[in-house]
Amino acid sequence: SLSEGEQINAILPIRDYEDNKYVFMATASGTVKKVSLTRFSRPRVCGIIALELAEDDNLVSVAITDGNQDVMLFTNAGKVARFHESQVRPMGRTARGVRGVKLAKQQRLISLIIAQPGGAILTATENGFGKRTDIEEYRCATGRGGQGVISIQVNSRNGDVVKAVQVFPGDEAMLISERGTLVRMHVDEISVISRNTQGVRLINLTDGDKLVGMQRIEELVEDSPSEENPE
Predict the structure, then answer these.
(1) How many CB atoms lie within 10 A of CB 224?
(2) For 195-205, how does the pLDDT look when each residue is reduced to its tens digit (9 = 90+)?
(3) What is the spatial distance between Cα 95 and Cα 224, in angstroms, rounded to a whole number?
(4) How many CA atoms lie within 13 A of 231 on its CB side?
(5) Order of strands, edge to edge, in the sheet holding 79-84?
(6) Among the four residues 46, 86, 175, 201, which has the most C-beta atoms within 10 Å?
(7) pTM for the structure as a whole
(8) Are 211 and 145 in contact (CB under 8 A)?
C-alpha cells in the first residue's frame, strides 16, 4: 500500500541478499545513501523504510553496487559529479544520507549512473536535444559533494536536462514527451561529441510540448530456434 502522493519509482531484481552488495540511492536534492543489501532481506507486507526523506525531497534512482563502483550524478543544470562509492559509508535504513552533489537553488538531481567500462553517456534535454559522449571524457573524478563538471550545455535552446543514461553500441533509446509523443531510435545514429557542447536534435516537439523521459533499451540477442525433441 502507498501513502497519499507516494509512488513507485524503482524496481530492483534480486537473486540473493549477498553481504558484499549494497543498495545505492540518490534523491532530487543531491543526497546519496548506501545501505547493505542484507538490510532488506526481511521485507514486510506494509514495506520497510529504505531512506528518511526531507519533506521537499524525493527519491530519484536506486542501483545495486558491490562497493567498488564509480558513481555518476547528473543534474538538470547540465552538470555531472563522479566519485568512487567508497566515499559514501554504509548506513542504516533510517538514515538520511550525505551530500552527493552540490546544487544551486532551483537545481535538482535527475539521474544516477553506476559507471560501466566502455560505452557512452546519452543525455537528453526538455526541448528535445541531446548527445552521446564517450564515458572516457568523464574519467576525471570530481569528488563527492562538489558541483561537478559540465555534461551538456543548458541554455534557451536546450532547456533543462531531463535524463542521462549509459548506452552501448547496438542499444536503442526510447523518448517520450509530456503530451505522449514517443520516439524509439538506435543510439548509434546519435552523434558522439564532447562534454561541453549543446548536442543535436533527438525528437521533434510541438509548441508547448516538453521531453519528460528517456530509457535505454538493451540490444537483445535472439535465441536460435530450438530443435524439437523426438518423441
Answers:
(1) 6
(2) 889 999 999 99
(3) 48
(4) 0
(5) 109-114, 70-75, 79-84, 149-150
(6) 175
(7) 0.89
(8) no
